[in-house]
Amino acid sequence: xxxxxxxxxxxxxxxxxxxxxxxxxxxxxxxxxxxxxxxxxxxxxxxxxxxxxxxxxxxxxxxxxxxxxxxxxxxxxxxxxxxxxxxxxxxxxxxxxxxxxxxxxxxxxxxxxxxxxxxxxxxxxxxxxxxxxxxxxxxxxxxxxxxxxxxxxxxxxxxxxxxxxxxxxxxxxxxxxxxxxxxxxxxxxxxxxxxxxxxxxxxxxxxxxxxxxxxxxxxxxxxxxxxxxxxxxxxxxxxxxxxxxxxxxxxxxxxxxxxxxxxxxxxxxxxxxxxxxxxxxxxxxxxxxxxxxxxxxxxxxxxxxxxxxxxxxxxxxxxxxxxxxxxxxxxxxxxxxxxxxxxxxxxxxxxxxxxxxxxxxxxxxxxxxxxxxxxxxxxxxxxxxxxxxxxxxxxxxxxxxxxxxxxxxxxxxxxxxxxxxxxxxxxxxxxxxxxxxxxxxxxxxxxxxxxxxxxxxxxxxxxxxxxxxxxxxxxxxxxxxxxxxxxxxxxxx
Length: 493
Description:
Elements: H1 7-18, H2 22-39, E1 49-53, H3 55-58, E2 67-72, H4 84-101, E3 104-110, E4 117-122, E5 128-133, H5 136-151, H6 153-168, H7 181-194, H8 218-234, H9 245-255, H10 259-262, E6 266-269, E7 274-277, H11 309-327, H12 332-339, H13 342-349, H14 352-360, H15 381-387, H16 403-409, H17 434-442, E8 468-469, E9 472-473
Parallel strand pairs: 2-5
Antiparallel strand pairs: 1-2, 3-4, 4-5, 6-7, 8-9
Helix pairs in contact: 1-6, 5-6, 6-7, 9-11, 12-13
């Protein structure tokens, strides 16, 4: 398509409106702390830990994103996978405790779901939470998505834009027969695998098996995936895709504009990075779903199993309409209107003059796709942490555990970082409390410099970005040179 000069700057305005601010991160950390306190009032859950996962951990959530929480039952020599009835019992006990506290509302216990879930909303922050027990699969998938976002910065921006677009058109709600957010992320991965030249590899090249089946050797998953990601990023023979964010977004909508027709015979397979014929794929037979989007980390599960036949036709219509409108030479307000919901589009459309002023000063210049005014987005975490002398962003706090739990966690299959740190590094941890940090920010002070710790208490979990492994930098480096200060961070090649 011909380059629209206002398209990419407009996308950056949308991203700035939907990306989480420091206050959004702080609010979610406060909710997590409140849940940790609530666990202590349930005798059977004392000693368990609260582990966030989902979009919060993969860094793919918007300002209004929900929280996915796994209550991990670190009980020494307990079984690795807690049974469904046990999960229902524990969640029922937690439900009574949260109800008695009076600090939560809209409490709903979905006991008979595939994964039993307790749905609650925090009374003060108004943040929705889905709480599950020992959700190891969710923790693992979140970490994979975080790694993938490290390969190319366009992946995260595309996911955020697609999720906002899907919500605006009411096709991001599995309850009404449309997509869940995870399946939308997989569609973005598939698009970046099948564009020319490819931006992401087939996920089978990152980990060659169903990762959920190998949870008992979780450390091996991290090591092998890190090595394969490093190999892909360092490849000098592959062609580099330099498409702009707007070009990738338009081609994304065009690719799936006839998804209702394709879905009759073909399935989306991010593991192989190809459309797969359903009739020749024994894992997907018999055909019982309207749309197949195979979960590459838990094959042959269908991540789009909630999509109904009726909704799929409407979804295809929304894809086609969006593709058609964005392919034309539309203006800024038209772009905002088709991609966002009213609570975002109305303020953005009324700030055209302010928008021009910002771009004149380089705040959201289309040539600087990483330019953001706040330090909490994915590209700026490194720069922010260095300039403020913090070795880890404050949304990865170390979990408090008992001595017995610390000893057991060294060999815990849940702990994908239980191995000795690579290259002699110790992993950075947060030693301040969240309350201290927030008060320092409000007073305009810089946070205290954190210290390193090598005890098992400070080893990472599946849901936390790991340290450096096999040449892939999954965490932020501790130092930055004077010449590098002020520069925008890009994923290392």
